[in-house]
Amino acid sequence: MFVLVEMVDTVRITPWSFQRQLNEAIAEELNKKLANKVVYNVGLCICLYDITKLEDSYIFPGDGASHTKVHFRYVVFHPFLDEILIGKIKYCSQEGVHVSMGFFDDILIPPESLQQPAKFWRVSDEAEQVWLWEYETDEGAHDLYMDQGEEIRFRVTDEVFVDTSPTGPAAATPDKPPAPPGQSTAPPAEDSGEKKEAPYTLIGTICEPGLGLLSWWNS
After folding, report:
1. Nearest of 43, 79, 82 to residue 205 by alpha carbon
2. Do residues 203 and 157 make contact, with C-beta atoms less than 8 angstroms apart?
3. What is the pLDDT of residues 110-163, one digit of tens each?
4. What is the mean predicted confidence (pLDDT) over 65-86?
5. Closest CA to 96 of 137, 136, 152
6. 114 burial class (0-12, 13-18, 19+ CB within 10 angstroms)?
7. Residue 214 CB-density burial (10 A; 0-12 exposed, 13-18 middle, 19+ buried)
8. What tens digit of pLDDT does each residue of 92-103 get?
9. Which of 11, 32, 171, 198 is the most buried (most CB within 10 A)?
10. pTM to 2 decimal places
């Protein structure tokens, strides 16, 4: 679930931090930059593990800060495929069951990976929607609801990384007249139709009836 990743970065230390130990100042800057951030194709950065090498520091003209190339190891959340994890149901939608591990929320179990037969149940208010498992017993079928907060065991089947780096402005269309000076050409946020994507998502499948559903039913 957690791995050590070797990284290299150039760290800038401001002049008012020169009185501190260099390793301490660099560790703080690295955690400010990386902790709780997703690095593309690497995973969710948790915390600095250690610094393995410090190269020479330089001060460039016009900048009083020092710049040091640092080799270090960072603790990263990056489960391997087929690893079994435990989380809690955060909410349900037509996309599937969304699971949280407390420090990481972007986990999705799609409908086809739920225990079957499963069906989506929703009342008029979209805030009340849930997936349920039609559990067969000798007495007939029983609807076991996948309620928010229920503990769940799931197996990681896929991972999706999305590059969320900022992009430049869209190219102007030839048939659209230029905007008056001082007026923004960007569409309003509500009209852009773009859904914010998570930079790192885990796709899983339920690996056992560990929802607390069977334990609830048998009790």
Report:
1. 82
2. yes
3. 888 887 777 777 765 566 777 777 777 767 667 777 778 888 899 999 999 998
4. 95
5. 152
6. buried
7. middle
8. 888 888 999 999
9. 11
10. 0.76
